[in-house]
UniProtKB/TrEMBL annotation:
This is Histidine kinase. Keywords: Kinase, Transferase. One of its GO terms (molecular function) is kinase activity. PANTHER family: BLR0328 PROTEIN. Residues 220-359 form the FIST C-domain domain. Residues 25-219 form the FIST domain. The keyword RNA-binding does not apply. The keyword Oxidoreductase does not apply.
């Protein structure tokens, strides 16, 4: 595997040094992550289309761009990949072309399905989609538990419009899925949060998919506000500081759910993923050192599926909430991951509105919030 990387900043393209450079005409896939303003600039698309005429171009807007060991805003990071033994297929659809987010996931997985499929990477719209339903759709026919990872596009901390696209200037409402085929590619994944839980465990007693109304038979929004203290006047933004830990019935694993909006009239909260009735929840709060250490853990876990080989390429998808909390320390979580991944790995990624990854090797993918999620690739 060979990778070329570029950074579009201050209206100029810069080429990054490459450990194992490729010929542009040989690249099959280009991943471009950028701010909402920059990623829809036709000049960005035109530059990458001209430079990589034979590659599938995948675009996503972000809440921050990751390249090498640094985080940027208001830029575009692009990684062009040449696989030597692996075949790549990219497909896209619009959320509005399907009855539900679940059907969107089913449709895309059907387009990629093949005996030699070894991994799927998803770039999804981050505002129109129900991430939990999308993931469930990808899982429906994935009986071999092929690794499915990715993320939901971001829009800084505005939560207004996200843009994604395949082989065109990105727009709202698209979901892109990239399938990898062959026996030579090893796809690893790791996802970890590093948050501290506090308070008693409670039960979701009334919800509709990702809209929460009651916990323990009491109004959920009022209960949540009780714990926020001075942060209550800064909702919904301050909710990023206090996500919920979610344990589904029959599962020992905890997911994290972030609040996207509150409805004062209905006394409800809308989350980035579903909270089924009967599931258990606890409040969470930030621990800065644990958040940074979580990046190291996610990077280490991503080695498991690639049999402890150091990866050639890694995609880091971290949550916008982590970036808003870490602020000037945000680079530290990227550096922590790079220290584990190794100097030979080309690194890219973005800050998202939701992360997609299995909990462990051989399990189905899940929607995560407030995690660092890493997908590692190694061609043997």
């Amino acid at each position: 595997m060979k990778v070329l990387q570029h950074h579009f900043v201050h209206d100029q393209w810069k080429d990054l040094p490459s450990v194992n450079a490729s010929e542009a005409s040989n690249c099959q896939l280009v991943l471009a992550f950028g701010s909402s303003e920059a990623i829809v600039n036709p000049a960005v698309f035109n530059y990458l289309r001209e430079r990589y005429p034979n590659a599938a171009l995948v675009f996503s807007s972000t809440a921050g761009e990751i390249i090498d060991d640094s985080v940027f805003d208001d830029s575009v990071v692009a990684s062009a990949i040449e696989f030597e033994k692996t075949t790549v297929k990219s497909v896209t659809t619009r959320v509005t072309d399907h009855a539900s987010s679940y059907d969107t996931g089913v449709f895309l997985m059907e387009q990629l399905s093949a005996e030699d499929l070894c991994g799927v990477f998803i770039i999804s719209d981050g505002t129109f989609i129900n991430g939990s339903e999308l993931v469930a759709g990808f899982n429906r026919d994935n009986t071999r538990n092929i690794p499915v990872t990715g993320g939901l596009a971001g829009d800084a901390a505005r939560f207004a419009k996200t843009f994604t696209g395949l082989n065109q200037v990105p727009a709202q409402g698209n979901v892109v899925a990239v399938g990898f085929y062959g026996s030579s590619l090893q796809v690893g994944h790791g996802s970890f949060g590093g948050w501290d839980e506090f308070g008693q465990e409670r039960t979701v007693t009334r919800s509709e998919k990702n809209v929460l109304f009651e916990i323990d038979g009491k109004n959920a929004l009022d209960l949540y506000k009780h714990y926020l203290g001075d942060y209550v006047n800064e909702l919904p933004g301050s909710a990023l500081l206090f996500p919920l830990s979610l344990k589904l019935a029959g599962s020992e694993k905890n997911l994290v759910r972030t609040i996207l909006s509150v409805n004062e009239a209905e006394k409800s909260m809308t989350f980035a993923g579903n909270l089924p009735e009967g599931s258990k929840v606890r409040l969470m709060k930030a621990n800065f050192d644990k958040l940074i250490d979580a990046s190291s853990t996610a990077a280490s876990d991503s080695f498991t599926a690639i049999k402890d080989h150091h990866p050639d390429f890694a995609i880091l998808v971290s949550c916008v909430g982590r970036k808003l909390i870490l602020q000037e320390r945000t680079d530290e979580e990227i550096i922590a991951a790079k220290d584990v991944l190794g100097a030979q790995a080309s690194i890219t990624g973005f800050y998202s509105y939701g992360e997609i990854s299995p909990f462990g090797t051989g399990s189905q993918c899940e929607l995560h919030n407030q995690t660092m999620t890493i997908t590692s690739f190694k061609e043997l």
